[in-house]
Amino acid sequence: MSSPDKPANQVPRLGGAFLWRQVYNAVSSGASAIKIAMFDEVNEGTAIFKAAGKRGDAPDQGYWLTLDADGRALPSDWYLRFAYEAGRVVRGESPATDVVPANPGPQAAGVPACGALGPNQGLAVGPALVSCDGRFKLVLQSDGNLVTYQGGAAVWSNGVSSQIAARVVMQADGNLVEYDTAGRPLWNSGTAGRAGAYAQLQSDGRFVVTGG
Which PROSITE patterns match (predicted)? Predict the structure, then answer.
């Protein structure tokens, strides 16, 4: 609950961007361990415990800072997942990158721990999916174009343009589908019927749907 004598959302967490920047800075400077201190300070940008995702899930009494305060729809354990991902970066199991993870946390069985979208996982406009070696990133642009970059150079795109994109989802039926903000499909990979498949940004820059 926010204190009445302090401004609400005093240090915005920005969907994890604030916390991830601290992790990236620490690892980039050579740190072999990190400590997420003051983990319960919700109004100081570092809280990682589970919290209500939206106002409708919080008590009616007083003001409670929920995870949608920054305009993002996030699951209640989002920041615990970030802490898990931070540990992987410190241990060298995932590349240290300044790009906020698209789907932090443990993957389903059989899905690679990095560079992959498992069943029912998605990529929104903003975050990036990063290959396991850190050389490539997949970004859903606001104009609807899904693009793989190596450095600043585009190496692949799905060709969608002039749209208002919302999300790309690796559906449970094996089809990778891009949707606009109204929930209308804009593009798909044509891989339906492969239940359990996952999409992976490989270390050679190829973005593929595999398995299932």
Answer: BULB_LECTIN
